[in-house]
Design a protein that fits this description.
This protein is an alpha+beta fold. Helix content is 13%, strand content 27%. The strands form 8 sheets. Strands 8, 11, 13, 16, 17, 22, 23 and 27 form an 8-stranded mixed sheet that branches. Strands 12, 15, 18, 19, 20, 24, 25 and 26 form an 8-stranded antiparallel sheet that branches. α3 packs across α7.
Length: 674
């Protein structure tokens, strides 16, 4: 039978009932049905008023070797939109879980017994399922050295002769002559520009892949300060980064060595270079301090080294800015704007540092790095007056070398920061990073802040170091590995309910409940968020009262005539959640929305239960309860839902506009103060 015929029959039946039994009052349910159809039109036959869907996961056992627990997230770990949707033992070969129906990807992390992340992946949702395996992981293209022309390494270029002043507070270099009362840096070591260094395109990374690294709650977020301890990124990872050893790469076999810039956020136009020495000189600090310096990257700023797929080179702080968009769950920032970094090969000039150039470094070579804070003159290649080298704007990846050149740490970060007072500056850190293809990359993070003005977020530029190295003490870092790392909040859903006290406003705020649950667990929580109705209302789960307290009292107001949290902003403290025991297969993605309902006390003292789902024998179903994402802001009192959310109308009639709840009209919904 055609849906329009159903509509005529239903409305006709209501009309005949009214004509043949004039003394019979129309029930609130019937009135609501009639008015809703008049207002919104014919409802899609497939509409169940629920954005939650049930997905299944199939686990490839070897993928999570060493794991004890698998978690499914709604967004990358560390983003504002990240919620914990499911938690299951790693031994599970398959499981089911609730998930927002508008999302196209699920994010998976697996932990070992020490709560360290041993696997992370982004999984595409296909046919209501995901596959957790190496093959499903987002990956960047591996880069093979053979694809680059390495036949013409750069020769030594111009020697830097004007190096500015030199700080030697500890008198480490007593033989260095003074010029105008300051020691002459140029007589300590030789520094060279390199002739025509080639900038190659390096690896491509998506914002999705960068999110766990430099996202809001990733490993090295921009300008991070722990709200409780005041710790910066450097402080919170200090026990894992072996700071006292600094950053030194030791070549394990003859091979090329390159630096790939993967991300960064700074407005400074810095230069980056390297120093090398043979294994037999590794303990000779005086030799290392006087070894040749080679400026490899003249313009090390992000906007000269990181290209957006569609727009060319990014702005100096564009990566952190777009990472914030990604943290807020903007899909375009996660998938549509992959970034390609620059790649630079280091050149070996023989053991004496001035011989024939080659891209091959012999086994046993030690490599350290330095940065030159070269001011804000982007196009200045000559270290002129504005980029003068002094004791503050050149620093090294070995702390003792910063000590020797009197470059110390400035103001410490955090409660116990005194341990850094008088200690050498730490401006380079080294750590391992899952390359999404089963291997571990070596990353170097750099801080370019000067002295006490530094935020020590260690992400002003980040290099991936390519080569074959001895890296016995390079630890793999992941979000959640820090002592303060915790699970994201549980996935939550909002039930927006009409209590049928009035049937003409459709504001869906008579009762607003939050249901939080992690699939795989047997406890859910229920919390009242708003009470826009004027009747006493109680919450049910599977026919039993969740609490003897009516919703208004739950929100701190005994008088049920007073509407709560349906004005311009939340005025009553959100109620403490109540725990409910649920079965192992509990799901909100059902026609009855997990079995939650409300019990309304009518003016005549009788109770009516308002529940979700189609009624038996009811061909036309209208929503008394809708299930929306837990971040949703409900309409203000007497603001009809389609006025607050114009796309709601389309969702009603044909099921499209699944994201209708994300685009409210300004000034029509309650400000939750999130």
């Amino acid at each position: 039978m055609h849906p329009k015929t159903l509509l005529k029959i239903a409305l006709g039946a209501i009309c005949l009932m009214s004509c043949s039994q004039e003394t019979l009052e129309i029930t609130p349910e019937e009135q609501y049905l009639r008015d809703f159809i008049k207002k919104f039109g014919l409802v899609s036959p497939d509409q169940n008023w629920n954005i939650a869907v049930r997905l299944s996961a199939n686990v490839d056992g070897p993928t999570v070797s060493g794991a004890t627990e698998i978690c499914v997230l709604t967004a990358p770990l560390g983003s504002d939109a990240c919620r914990l949707a499911a938690r299951y033992p790693a031994s599970a070969k398959s499981f089911s879980f609730d998930f927002p129906g508008n999302l196209t990807r699920a994010y998976v992390v697996a932990y070992n017994a020490d709560r360290r992340i041993v696997y992370s992946s982004s999984c595409e949702i296909k046919n209501s399922s995901i596959t957790i395996s190496r093959a499903s992981k987002s990956s960047r293209a591996a880069i093979d050295d053979s694809q680059f022309d390495l036949s013409n390494p750069p020769a030594l270029g111009e020697k830097v002769t004007s190096l500015g002043t030199f700080s030697d507070a500890a008198n480490r270099f007593p033989d260095v002559p003074e010029v105008d009362g300051e020691k002459d840096r140029a007589s300590v070591f030789s520094m060279y520009h390199l002739d025509k260094v080639t900038r190659f395109d390096g690896a491509t990374w998506t914002y999705e892949e960068l999110q766990p690294l430099v996202g809001k709650d990733g490993v090295f977020p921009e300008s991070y300060t722990d709200p409780e301890t005041g710790y910066c990124n450097l402080r919170r990872w200090e026990d894992r980064l072996h700071l006292d050893k600094g950053v030194e790469m030791v070549v394990a076999k003859d091979c090329p060595v390159s630096l790939g810039i993967m991300c960064g956020g700074t407005e400074r136009y810095n230069k980056y270079g390297y120093i090398y020495y043979s294994d037999d000189k590794a303990d000779d600090k005086d030799y290392i301090a006087r070894a040749n310096r080679y400026i490899l990257i003249e313009a090390g700023n992000p906007d000269a080294n990181i290209k957006d797929k569609n727009k060319g080179f990014v702005g100096s702080m564009q990566v952190p800015t777009l990472m914030n968009f990604a943290s807020e769950g903007h899909d375009w920032a996660l998938s549509n704007f992959p970034l390609t970094g620059s790649r630079y090969y280091l050149t070996y000039y023989g053991e004496d540092g001035t011989g024939e150039p080659t891209y091959t470094f012999p086994a046993g070579t030690h490599i350290i790095f330095f940065e030159i804070i070269a001011g804000y003159t982007k196009d200045d290649p000559n270290l002129g007056a504005e980029t003068e080298l002094n004791g503050e704007n050149i620093r090294y990846s070995l702390p003792w070398l910063n000590d020797w050149t009197a470059h110390f740490r400035g103001e410490p970060h955090g409660e116990d920061g005194s341990k850094y007072d008088g200690n050498p500056a730490i401006k380079f850190v080294k750590f391992g990073w899952d390359d999404q293809e089963g291997g571990i990359d070596t990353l170097v993070g750099v801080e370019d802040g000067v002295m006490s003005g530094s935020d020590d977020d260690m992400n002003d530029i980040m290099f991936i170091v390519n080569g074959t190295f001895k890296n016995e003490e390079t630890e793999v870092l992941k979000p959640g590995d820090t002592p303060e790392g915790n699970d994201p909040d549980a996935q939550s859903w909002i039930l927006a309910i009409e209590d049928l006290g009035d049937t003409d406003d459709y504001d869906f705020n008579d009762v607003v409940l939050e249901i939080s649950h992690v699939s795989g667990e047997t406890t859910a929580t229920v919390r009242a968020l708003a009470a826009g109705g004027t009747l006493p209302v109680y919450v049910e789960f599977n026919g039993e009262l969740v609490s003897d307290t009516h919703v208004n009292s739950w929100l701190g107001e005994s008088n049920t005539k007073n509407v709560l949290n349906v004005g311009a902003s939340v005025t009553h403290t959100q109620a403490e959640p109540i725990k409910v025991t649920v079965p192992e297969d509990f799901s909100m993605a059902t026609d009855n929305m997990g079995g939650f309902a409300i019990r309304v006390k009518r003016p005549d003292g009788e109770f009516t239960t308002i529940e979700a789902g189609k009624k038996a024998g009811q061909p036309l179903h209208t929503p008394w309860i809708i299930c929306v994402d837990g971040s949703w802001s409900w309409p203000m009192e007497r603001v009809s839902i389609e006025k607050a959310y114009p796309d709601f109308q389309q969702w009603v009639t044909d099921g499209s506009c699944a994201d209708w709840w994300k685009t409210p009209v300004k000034g029509t919904t309650v400000n939750r103060g999130k």
